[in-house]
Amino acid sequence: MNAPGLPSHAALRQFAVADDMLEVGGVPLRRLAQRVGGTPFYAYERAHIVRRVAELRAALPAGVHVHYAMKANPMPAVVQLLAGLVDGIDVASGGELATALDTTMPVGRISFAGPGKSDAELARAVAAGVLINVESRAQLERTALASERLGLAARVAVRINPDFALRRTGMRMGGGAQPFGVDASLVPALLGRIGQLGLDFHGFHIYAGSQNLSGVALAEAQEHSVQLALELAPCAPAPLRVLNIGGGFGVPYFPGEQPLDLGPVAAGLQLQLDKLGAAAPGARLNLELGRYLVAEAGIYVCKVLERKVSHGQVFLVTDGGLHHHLAASGNFGQLIRKNYPVAIGNRLRGGARELASVVGPLCTPLDLLADQMEMARAEEGDLVVVFQSGAYGLTASPTAFLGHPLPAEVLV
Ligand SMILES: *Cc1c(COP(=O)(O)O)cnc(C)c1O
After folding, report:
1. Beta strand spans in 193-326 (E)
2. What ligand 1 atom has the least distance to the C-alpha of 295?
């Protein structure tokens, strides 16, 4: 597919290339920009997402259910595409709930997590009939009130803050003091209270962290999660029907990072399925994945407005920046700024190559999409592509900062 001499990062090899120009869903990038009506924009490749889910399912044991955690990419067309491919959708706000309910995903396969659910959100979730992952005693009481007012027994699961942490992870969301979930030691009392309140208990939710590239570390956390759930299950008012052991599957962004090896995860999950099948027959084992399903299918595209040389260094000043793509600027959970894979999309190899920095229009030095990266020599009007941009892109960015227009989003 790629001609020799192209930049070697793996991200780029995931898309087709013709005449030195990137293609998304079979559409050459220039043509896609014309079709969108301008730059900047995000483009997500439909076939890539379909393939990703198929490959994941082929790698994992058949008994594992895959859910989509839609905060990674809540574009309605993307969520609908995934609704047809996965076994459930996990939402984390009333807004996401509304998007999920508009898809073809059955209501019974939608779950709702989040440490700060409002009374209005809880009422909507109870009325809709989705599974509410309860994250505190106070949230449980408010869920029960909503149930009483509506005359409907809420479907609930308990999100546990486990005593273990997911090792080698990008963003920790479990282990020690956390705003997420109920400390494991407090769960038995909470389960008793669920029984008193007469709510419809389904199971447990344990989510320990995000962006993990170690299959061994993930398998270890999954083993601990299943063990913890089975220890707590006897305190529950009803048999375990759902065990959501989170996700945290990472994707490689930076030089030297290797794609996640699913081998240890799949082997571990088979053991967990066997254990669960013996101790809690009929319980579903769910994974909830966001980033892993969509990150690599997406690119962010902006246009070079100006080529500028300052003290011998080349700056490509573009119409896109951190206000659309905070993560690529290094300001979304990175400790040390590193470059996302970036290339000139309409001249991938190009004639000459050079070191250039890609900056946005914002008056802040943080507005940096590539810092001194090797790429084709670009001119005004060329299209800069940021790869690995399908997750935590647009909706994880401060779009109001400096008042520039919103970028378009397309699923191709
Ligand atoms: C954010 C989140 C996810 C998705 O995490 P990824 O790293 O994108 O897979 C899953 N579950 C919960 C509860 C989350 O908050």
Report:
1. 200-205, 209-212, 242-244, 284-289, 298-310, 313-318
2. 8
